[in-house]
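Methods — Computational structure assignment.
A single polypeptide chain was analysed. Its primary sequence is given first, followed by the predicted tertiary structure written as structure tokens.
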Amino acid sequence: MVFTRKEKEVLVKRLYEESKTVREIDKEVHMSFSDIAAIIRKVTGDSNKNNSAKPTKSIEARALKLFSKGKTPVEVAIKLDISSQEAETFFIRHWGLKQQYELELIYKEMKNQLPSFLGLYRVIKGARVTEKEAVNVIKCANEIPQFRNSNQNLKNENTGLERQKGRLLTDLYLLQDKTEELGEYVQYYQNEINNKYFERAALNDEVRDLEDLAYDKWRAHRRLM
């Protein structure tokens, strides 16, 4: 849909009142940042000489002026007796008016995580880590879940191997017991074989003695004849 200049101004004012960022407003109305900023200045009273401006706009103008002097949102909230949320909203708009759009966008996106981000930045800066090195670290951090999964898989495999090892050790102990048992059987039958050997040798000796005795009796009998 194509908007007229007047319609665009009305739309910019409405979006601005909804606390939209300059970049978000640009996506809706397709105007340059400078044109959007000019319309916003009319809303905030920077270029409006009409003394019938609403009190909230007057407070906003005073807040923007204090921010221009380097005051913090906390100082502005105390000075103007406004809520922290209002001070924060005016502070973000101050960035937009100064065309610090990237900073405004970053703050909008990282509002709740900003302290953590700054803490991380200070750690990286203190460690003298380069931007490229920091990017590589973050890329590696993205692979941590994969490493955790791989580590868990290795743990599972190790558990399986430990169980298999336990079963093999049990089988080994059973085989050792069986081997000892068979060894006892072998020793028993070896002893039996040795005993039978000695018994056979003794019988052979008796047979030879009997043969010698028989032979001697036969010779004696021949002499008597």
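Note: Residues 62 and 80 are 8 Å apart (CA to CA).
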